[in-house]
């Protein structure tokens, strides 16, 4: 049989979202054991084009004729923005569509993606969405980055929530060697910085962070012969990398650093994240920088400017690899932590890779619940 799935997600923009979509498609095909046709509905594309209703009620009565399941997510779908006035999540649709649906819906590893000290709009709509999903026998799950605890503060303690591994862990491998790390003789360190919404990520200490980070990189290069790969996920990240480059010596820039291209879309994700497989250590600020590093079996230090970074590493047992960017004491210790991981890479890699079988089993267990709803 062929399973027809309407998949509402961010398909063609942030490469981290591309990774999670690729991971969902890969593991669902593996675990359900049927051919699956995924029909993409790009949520961010709809928003950028001013489309408010992403699944019009006029189409709802015909959904069962075209699809066997509606898949929503994963990714940071729960941001509390003003535009989420019907559903409470970034996939904005009238809740009658869910209420009247005759086919199963799966909300897959959604992230509570709000920055601290930001207002959450349409909280009641979000509560109603979760309640309708439960009442209708649908599946509502959040990703393993502390989202369940944060979301319960939004919808109340009685909501039926399931936490599952973020599917960015399972992005398929790419074709092979990438040029940014080819030929590097010393330890290969990938640095990922998040340049969007810097006012939310940084305070008055932003310049100090750049100096601390530059000092750490210089130390890794001079004492361990490290090669540093700068890895923006979005074009907006480049501005933050530029601030770092301004405080690094020309010798370091010319001899010990390379820069990856910015790619987007689901199809580019395997090639892009091969860089994470082929380095020895990741310093990552974005959620999917830490998630995809773990999926690649690579040790990672989470540069936490958002709760999801520390939340993910803590939930999987790597909380001691988190550096909170607004704590000066931890910033000072960044170089020491990086050096310690590089000095015992076999142990660090083993600690990461030993986590993956259990995480993969958790994904399979959730997929069995999906299969039950599809009578597979």
List keywords for this structure.
single chain, six-stranded parallel sheet, about 45% helix, about 375 residues, 18 helices, Rossmann fold, alpha/beta
Question: How do the helices and strands line up, and which of them pair or pack?
Answer:
Elements: E1 2-9, H1 15-32, E2 35-42, H2 43-48, H3 57-60, H4 63-66, E3 69-78, H5 95-99, E4 105-112, H6 123-135, E5 139-143, H7 147-155, E6 162-164, E7 188-192, H8 198-201, H9 206-224, E8 227-230, H10 238-245, H11 250-255, E9 257-259, H12 269-277, E10 281-284, H13 287-295, E11 300-304, H14 307-315, E12 322-324, H15 328-332, H16 334-343, H17 345-353, H18 356-373
Parallel strand pairs: 1-2, 1-3, 3-4, 4-5, 5-6, 7-8, 7-10, 8-9, 10-11, 11-12
Helix pairs in contact: 1-12, 1-13, 1-18, 9-16, 13-14
Description:
- The protein has 18 helices and twelve strands.
- It folds into two domains: 2-170 and 357-373, 3-Layer(aba) Sandwich (Rossmann fold); 188-343, Glycogen Phosphorylase B (Rossmann fold, 3-Layer(aba) Sandwich), CATH 3.40.50.
- The chain is α/β, with parallel strands linked by helices.
- The chain has a six-stranded parallel beta sheet with strand order 2-1-3-4-5-6. A six-stranded parallel beta sheet has the order 9-8-7-10-11-12, sandwiched between helices.
- The model has no long low-confidence stretch (mean pLDDT 93).
- The chain has helices at 15-32, 43-48, 57-60, 63-66, 95-99, 123-135, 147-155, 198-201, 206-224, 238-245, 250-255, 269-277, 287-295, 307-315, 328-332, 334-343, 345-353, 356-373, and strands spanning 2-9, 35-42, 69-78, 105-112, 139-143, 162-164, 188-192, 227-230, 257-259, 281-284, 300-304, 322-324.
């Amino acid at each position: 049989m062929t399973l027809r799935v309407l998949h509402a997600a961010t398909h063609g923009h942030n490469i981290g979202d591309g990774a999670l979509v690729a991971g969902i498609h890969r593991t669902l095909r593996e675990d359900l054991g049927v051919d699956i046709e995924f029909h993409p509905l790009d949520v961010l594309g709809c928003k950028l084009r001013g489309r408010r209703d992403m699944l019009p009620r006029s189409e709802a009565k015909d959904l069962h004729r075209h699809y066997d399941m509606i898949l929503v997510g994963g990714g940071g779908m729960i941001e509390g923005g003003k535009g989420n006035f019907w559903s409470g999540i970034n996939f904005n649709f009238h809740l009658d569509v869910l209420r009247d649906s005759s086919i199963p819906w799966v909300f897959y590893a959604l992230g509570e993606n709000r920055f601290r000290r930001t207002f959450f709009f349409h909280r009641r709509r979000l509560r109603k969405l979760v309640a309708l999903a439960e009442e209708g026998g649908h599946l509502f799950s959040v990703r393993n980055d502390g989202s369940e605890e944060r979301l319960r503060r939004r919808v109340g303690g009685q909501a039926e929530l399931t936490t599952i591994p973020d599917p960015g862990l399972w992005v398929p491998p790419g074709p092979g060697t990438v040029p940014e790390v080819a030929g590097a003789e010393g330890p290969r360190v990938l640095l990922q910085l998040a340049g969007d919404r810097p006012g939310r990520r940084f305070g008055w200490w932003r310049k100090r962070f750049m100096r601390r980070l530059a000092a750490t990189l210089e130390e890794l290069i001079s004492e361990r012969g490290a090669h540093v790969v700068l890895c923006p996920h979005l074009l907006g990240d480049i501005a933050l990398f530029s601030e770092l480059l301004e405080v690094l010596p020309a010798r370091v820039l010319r001899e010990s650093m390379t820069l990856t291209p910015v790619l987007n879309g689901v199809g580019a994700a395997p090639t892009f994240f091969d860089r994470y497989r082929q380095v020895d250590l990741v310093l990552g600020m974005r959620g999917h920088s830490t998630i995809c590093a773990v999926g690649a079996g690579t040790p990672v230090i989470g540069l936490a400017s958002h709760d999801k970074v520390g939340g993910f590493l803590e939930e999987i047992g790597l909380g001691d690899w988190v550096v909170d960017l607004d704590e000066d004491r931890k910033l000072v210790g960044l170089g020491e932590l990086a050096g310690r991981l590089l000095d015992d890479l076999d142990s660090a890699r083993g600690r990461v890779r030993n986590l993956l079988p259990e995480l993969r089993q958790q994904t399979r267990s959730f997929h069995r619940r999906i299969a039950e709803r599809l009578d597979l």
